[in-house]
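Task: complex structure prediction.
Instruction: return structure tokens for all chains below.
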Amino acid sequence: MKNSLRFAKGVAAAVAAAATLALTVPAQAEVDFSGQTVEWWIPFGEGGGSDVWARFYAPYLSKYLPGQPNVIVRNVPGGGSITGTNEFVARAAPDGLSIIGTSGSTQFPYLLGDSRVQYEYADLEPVLVSPTGGVVYIPAHFGVADASELGKLMGTELIYASQGATSLDLVPMLAFEVMGLNVRHVFGMTGRGDGRLAFERGEANIDYQTSSAYLTNVLPLVEAGDAVPLFSWGVLDAQGNVQRDPTFPDLPHFLEAYEMVHGPISAYGIELQAYLAFFGSGFAAQKPVMLPNGTPDEIVQVYRQAFIDAVNDPDLQAAKGDILGDYEQAVGDDVAGVYAAATSIDPVARDWVRTYLSENYNVTLD
Amino acid sequence: MLDTLFAALLGLLTFQHMGFMALGVILGLMVGILPGLGGIVGLSLLLPFLYGMDQTSALAMLIGLVAVIPTSDTFASVLMGIPGSTASQATVLDGFPLSKKGQAARALSAAFSASLMGGLFGALVLTGFVVVARPLILSFSSAELFALTIFGLSMVGVLSGSNLAKGVAAAALGLAFGAIGAAPATGEYRMEFGWLYLMNGVPLVIVALGLFAVPEIVDLLRGGSSIAGKTTLGKGWIEGIKDTWTYRWLALRCSGLGAIIGAIPGLGGSVVDWIAYGHVVQTSKDRSQFGKGDIRGVIAPESANNAKEGGGLVPTLLFGIPGSGSMAVFLAGLILLGVQPGPAMAGRNLDVTYTIVWSLALANVIGTLLCIVAAPGIARLTTIRYTLVAPFMIMVISFASFQATRSLYDLIALLVMGIVGVLLKRFGWPRPAFLIGFVLATQAERYLYQAVQFYDWGFLTRPLVLTIIGLTVISVWLGARKKPGEKAASVNTEGTSELAQAGQVWPQLVFGGLILAAFAFVFWESYGLSQLGGIFPTWVAVIGFAATLVALLPLATGRLETTANFDAETAKRESDVKGGAWAMLAWLAGFVGGVALVGFFAALMIFFVVFLRTMAKTSWVKTLLLTLAAGIFMLTLARALNLVMPAGLLQAQFNLPWPFR
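Output:
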């Protein structure tokens, strides 16, 4: 008897709750994830840069989402991150319980118009964008003291140890091309660490490393007088202008270095536009977090706020170390501009890159 | 340095730190026992818990897990004939025959003691070597790495059994399979049929399970009894330890080999066991028992694969370059803990490195003891009727397979590789040679291309390259030397050909024809590529085609006494099931088909019920209990890993709740 009474009460409460919920939906639904699980899709395997980044953020996201849901990282590896992202856009429900974090390797095939890509970045709802940066350096024996002396290298054949023409190393490839350097790319490296080893062995003589790897592994070489930094890739401000990398305030960014060599830029030619699109996608706005197409605005706002709070959390700031570096995380209203930089390209610039890749490296993307 | 070393030990020896290490070791033990699951899965299980842990405890836990896996994966290799992980494939060759002879206890204790020796040696290497390793690691460029892949490939010679042509052809087939996916030099896609899945090639774990696990399961099912048959585990615990002591120099040599190969970034740990196995065969006087249950064939790979972990930590810590998949996840753990690997690990952060060293040493001791304690219980599995064990094995290997991309394609790949494995085994094409080719394909091509790019063909005259090539020549010569009337050092990995000489050769000719067609296809596919992208598969196809022709020619011309004549179906079986191997493969195919229809979890449940009722003929109660046990096990593991299991047509139509999603 007592039990059935409790049951009846429970049903009544549930009906009442449902009724309130139904009534409030058209106005302002109170988003609450209590007791639920948010799946953070990562289209890469365990242990990569994106995986570490998501696992680092997950507990803070959980802390600041209403109702403190359990936030778990779900790895969906394969197909160079195209597979997992395709699956996300096909299957994830727009209920705020599925989010995805991608990387430059996911954005590049999209920007290049790869036919295997089934995701449309413009349809997704960005809520956070994490930038990263890097520094280009050469051996000291060239006698080039800084970027302003790059002219000395114009006749020399340089060698760069690359992960592949359509990998993230497309950015340095375009940068060297734009700069007018004569660089031979040797492919098949399995990571930037491989490239650094090739540099240290003297096999390659121009290289870049992301900021944290540069600080731990290359700076000792610079201090020992074996390597010389040329320029950083730079970062994008909220207006989409390239600025110096906060980690390396004394180094010129790429555009400054370009001007040191070629004089002031009057207009952005097609090649520079192409470079800037891939630079944005691969570095300045490398890792966006997005909600599925059609997610209600309340939920998007709740996520934006949660990431604002997470980034301001003193614990996160204390623990971020090399994972986020000194880069300003784009949150709140800053997201849209930076996200656009990562995920859009002028069609003419795209065609130029595609032609460049197919003529020089036999790359076909259809 | 010594101060730091002992300070690190004292720091580690607290109740809390040791507790976390024990946790890592126990988890590693469990993951290692399950065939196909290794460090990647184990470490992934631990990653979510790192948040908020103190550094020493977390390192102890991670290393505890890494250290014990190459010890505990021996169980599956010795007891089931299934490689426990990609690092203990070679252990199967002699470990499993020993087990069938009723000497499982001896094989296991020899393996564990050899593992312990290797593990401690690896920790020792890490202690001293990490301080001076930088220039040494830098001296291994693409040129030296290419020479090392050639050294690895030369092991095909000792694993070819009595017919070298078949061994070479099998290795070429492995190389061709390994060439699927993006070409290292140009990024062009080869033989991927436009499928996104094949873009990165076929995952190694699937190839290893398909080649070794599936044929073994099929065979054991046809046998109808338990693995151990009428024999027992035996009482060889002390004998096994004595064996390791007798062959202590061999174990030490192989530990050194393992540590060095592990420490060279770029070669990957998956060939260490084969190289150690090849080494012991080449350097032994009496080779008659290899492949039939020689204890040295267990000691060599087991000491090497454990030492490899210590070696593999050197480049991971010093350069931030992971030597293997599990090291990549370990590296991620380090970064989450706020440790950035780099030169400072041998300087400013030496204390962290030495915490890792001690964890590795202590975890090896704890892990070995636990394995010995757990062994009698685990070994009892081999006395269970195999029809009851098989569905669990199929469950575990498919689970391990779909870790690769979490999709149905992984299971299809497993089925395809399984069929290839069954056929290779039946017709006596050495599967280890295939595997070595597969593992080294990408490396061989990549490093050759890079070496030529960086050094031109002059790379062949680099001193270290010449040294490695010299070593290769010596090792091949050691293997080939023989007294008059004796056979060269070569292990019949698929059984003795004399026992399998067939009168009816058409099945062999059909299979050989298929292989010829495969090589022709590879040649044709490579033709449309750029020169850099196509040159490697072209040569593989030419060599493979020629070797296959040499192997088939005597058969086609009716000379049946040749060693190439091999059809395991000729030998009479004590018992068999209706339909033979194909019927057993049909079960696997049926399961994969079920996954395609209703998704992994539902298909698994249905498969268990149907298989247990029809094949094992168990009562309904027992069937349901076993199915329930499997379901709970799978759900626990999947939950812990945050997995959504491969989906089928049903899931494409309806949004179902987990675990059916």
